[in-house]
């Protein structure tokens, strides 16, 4: 059996906001090409954990590695050194993030939204980026909207643009924070379809979601979080169909 | 479309109803018309206005007072002063606003002190003070601080750590003093406007940009400031117009190449008061109208992607921001269908 490389390794991650401890020792390993779906009640620290993975939040204890690199710090002689802004930014370039509220840049057209980071951050050739961005937008089914502003699109369309925008940086890992929670029910499917395609193509993904159906169909690993710790994890048919922990059962009985 | 409807059901007659009458409006219009006519009549027939003095010729062989050399020179001075002080105000204002929002306590306190001082000091007083600063220092320049004292410590007489310096009489007189006084004062107001603008941006915007790997500078230049401009431009338009009129305080610096000073000089010489004031008023009206046109186009440019509804929301946000509240975040971002 060949060893599958690890993309994300979180080890005993702690995070507090002031006196409120939100993450109390989260452990999670995501293999390359794997889709991990994170479930859990509101306030359990799911978003906070995702934000720690690309260093939008600084963790207080523990360690997070993405593709073998320690996030936000450099290890030298057994000591941790904080990374400068530049190096943190470089790490983030290979981690795409999709937000619940889309967060498209409203003053730019759809195409400009997608092209912005590759052109400005990676300083890639503009014509090349334009071709690639158009191809990405076509892939998410929005080739007719390239010149519209985000305000002129439906929520589902905006979220698909947001996915294309993240993909334009050619990330090796994609983080989704409740990507369909702000959508009208009839628009959820179109976004999930794009995500399924992505999973099928082998993208490593961590998806915080309340869409149990999606988790069951797409996830390789379902992670149930509550109270700042991972309560239970495993393949969807075990966790969703046959949870062992009381808290998981209680949560699933509410959302199913 | 119509075909489809006729096959289902006949289209009813378009409604032809008698519109509601608004007699009150008609009364108001008549009253206003009469008042306007009376006003025009007064303007044209009252000799006191001396229109020919203003427009045609104010002395034998000279042009109307609005168009004489010194007055036009003053006009140029007023415009230059407005442009340069606003430039200083906007650039420094952005810097102070960013410092104010910095997580670094020292930077934000310095910025707070700056706005506190320059908003408290009346522009007239500032103008006079800056005109007289050369009393405090004969030379101004950059260099090692306490250079003479350090020199004395090591037994060197007159050790000079100055890298560059200039006679302050040359630097801080007239136009430059006026420009600094107005510009520094303006920066304090602009800082507050820019801060309100930056704070009106939804937190998710910088967050999404940072998650894409953008640096703090890029986030500011590409994402935050362009969106903040929608909130910043309208009150800045007010500031420009206020500045245009406030340039008249620099007569106390003293700066003589300024519109109002020049017009008053004419009135002192000719003993004609009212028409000269009217001439000044007309100039200010013309300049403000031009500025308002500019503001319209700026607002349109920075309103890109927001549509009419977005612009109305923006107006509300501006009001909230000016009242010190943080504008409703995420306008124009909601998942509208
Ligand atoms: N920046 C912050 N400052 C202070 N407290 C915070 C901050 N961000 C999150 N929290 C707190 O941390 C806890 C966990 O929040 P988090 O957003 O991670 O939960 P979540 O699992 O994503 O919930 P939801 O399903 O509602 O999104 C909450 O109690 C929240 O109030
Ligand atoms: Mg959340």
UniProtKB/TrEMBL annotation, chain B:
<dbReference type="GO" id="GO:0043190">
    <property type="term" value="C:ATP-binding cassette (ABC) transporter complex"/>
</dbReference>
<feature type="domain" description="ABC transmembrane type-1">
    <location>
        <begin position="75"/>
        <end position="287"/>
    </location>
</feature>
<comment type="similarity">
    <text>Belongs to the binding-protein-dependent transport system permease family.</text>
</comment>
<feature type="transmembrane region" description="Helical">
    <location>
        <begin position="171"/>
        <end position="191"/>
    </location>
</feature>
<protein>
    <submittedName>
        <fullName>Amino acid ABC transporter permease</fullName>
    </submittedName>
</protein>
<keyword id="KW-0472">Membrane</keyword>
<dbReference type="InterPro" id="IPR035906">
    <property type="entry name" value="MetI-like_sf"/>
</dbReference>
<dbReference type="GO" id="GO:0006865">
    <property type="term" value="P:amino acid transport"/>
</dbReference>
<feature type="transmembrane region" description="Helical">
    <location>
        <begin position="26"/>
        <end position="44"/>
    </location>
</feature>
<keyword id="KW-1003">Cell membrane</keyword>
<dbReference type="InterPro" id="IPR043429">
    <property type="entry name" value="ArtM/GltK/GlnP/TcyL/YhdX-like"/>
</dbReference>
<feature type="transmembrane region" description="Helical">
    <location>
        <begin position="111"/>
        <end position="137"/>
    </location>
</feature>
<dbReference type="Pfam" id="PF00528">
    <property type="entry name" value="BPD_transp_1"/>
</dbReference>
<keyword id="KW-0029">Amino-acid transport</keyword>
<keyword id="KW-0813">Transport</keyword>
<keyword id="KW-1133">Transmembrane helix</keyword>
<feature type="transmembrane region" description="Helical">
    <location>
        <begin position="271"/>
        <end position="298"/>
    </location>
</feature>
<dbReference type="InterPro" id="IPR000515">
    <property type="entry name" value="MetI-like"/>
</dbReference>
<dbReference type="GO" id="GO:0022857">
    <property type="term" value="F:transmembrane transporter activity"/>
</dbReference>
<dbReference type="InterPro" id="IPR010065">
    <property type="entry name" value="AA_ABC_transptr_permease_3TM"/>
</dbReference>
<feature type="transmembrane region" description="Helical">
    <location>
        <begin position="79"/>
        <end position="99"/>
    </location>
</feature>
<keyword id="KW-0812">Transmembrane</keyword>
């Amino acid at each position: 059996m060949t060893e599958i490389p690890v993309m994300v390794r979180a080890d005993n991650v702690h995070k507090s906001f002031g006196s409120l401890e939100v993450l109390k020792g989260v452990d999670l390993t995501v293999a390359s090409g794997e889709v991990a779906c994170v479930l859990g009640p509101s306030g359990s620290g799911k978003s906070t954990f995702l934000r720690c993975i690309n260093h939008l939040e600084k963790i207080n204890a523990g360690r997070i590695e993405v593709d073998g690199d320690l996030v936000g710090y450099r290890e030298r002689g057994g000591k941790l050194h904080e990374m400068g802004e530049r190096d943190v930014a470089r790490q983030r370039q290979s981690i795409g993030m999709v937000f619940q509220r889309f967060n498209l840049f409203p003053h730019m057209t759809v195409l400009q939204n997608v092209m912005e980071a590759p052109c400005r951050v990676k300083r890639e050739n503009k014509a090349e980026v334009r071709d690639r961005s158009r191809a990405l937008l076509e892939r998410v089914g929005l080739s007719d909207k390239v010149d519209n502003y985000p305000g002129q699109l439906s929520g589902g369309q905006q979220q698909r643009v947001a996915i294309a925008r993240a993909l334009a940086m050619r990330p090796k890992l994609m983080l989704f924070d409740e990507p369909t929670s702000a959508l009208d029910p009839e628009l959820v499917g179109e976004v999930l379809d794009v995500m399924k395609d992505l999973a099928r193509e082998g993208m490593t993904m961590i998806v915080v979601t309340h869409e149990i159906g999606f988790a069951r169909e797409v996830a390789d690993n379902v992670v149930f979080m509550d109270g700042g710790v991972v309560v239970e994890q495993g393949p969807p048919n075990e966790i969703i169909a046959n949870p062992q922990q009381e808290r998981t059962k209680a949560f699933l009985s509410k959302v199913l | 479309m119509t075909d489809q409807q006729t096959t289902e059901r006949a289209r009813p007659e378009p409604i032809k109803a008698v519109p509601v009458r608004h007699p009150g409006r008609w009364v108001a219009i008549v009253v206003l018309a009469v008042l306007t006519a009376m006003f025009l009549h007064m303007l044209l027939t009252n000799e006191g206005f001396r229109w020919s003095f203003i427009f045609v010729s104010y002395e034998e062989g000279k042009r109307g007072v609005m168009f004489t050399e010194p007055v036009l020179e003053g006009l140029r001075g007023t415009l230059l002063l407005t442009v340069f002080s606003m430039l200083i105000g906007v650039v420094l204002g952005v810097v102070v606003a960013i410092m104010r929002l910095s997580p670094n306590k020292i930077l934000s306190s310095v910025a707070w002190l700056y706005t506190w001082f320059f908003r408290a000091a009346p522009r007239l007083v500032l103008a006079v003070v800056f005109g007289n600063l050369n009393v405090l220092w004969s030379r101004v320049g950059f260099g090692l601080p306490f250079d003479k004292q350090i020199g004395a410590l090591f037994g060197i007489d007159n050790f000079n750590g100055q890298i560059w310096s200039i006679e302050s009489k040359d630097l801080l007189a007239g136009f430059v003093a006026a420009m600094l006084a107005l510009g520094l004062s303006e920066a304090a107001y602009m800082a507050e406007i820019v801060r309100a603008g930056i704070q009106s941006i939804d937190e998710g915007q910088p967050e999404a940009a940072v998650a894409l790997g953008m640096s703090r500078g890029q986030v500011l230049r590409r994402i935050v400031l362009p969106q903040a401009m929608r909130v910043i431009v309208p009150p800045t338009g007010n500031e420009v117009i206020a500045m245009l009129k406030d340039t008249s305080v620099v007569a106390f610096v003293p700066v003589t190449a300024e519109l109002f000073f020049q017009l008053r000089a004419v009135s002192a010489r000719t003993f004609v008061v009212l028409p000269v004031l009217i001439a000044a008023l007309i100039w200010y009206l013309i300049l403000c109208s031009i500025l308002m046109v500019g503001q319209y186009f700026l607002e349109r440019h920075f309103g890109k992607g927001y549509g009419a509804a977005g612009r109305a929301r923006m107006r509300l946000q501006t009001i909230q921001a000016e009242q010190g509240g943080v504008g409703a975040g995420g306008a124009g971002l909601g998942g509208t269908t």
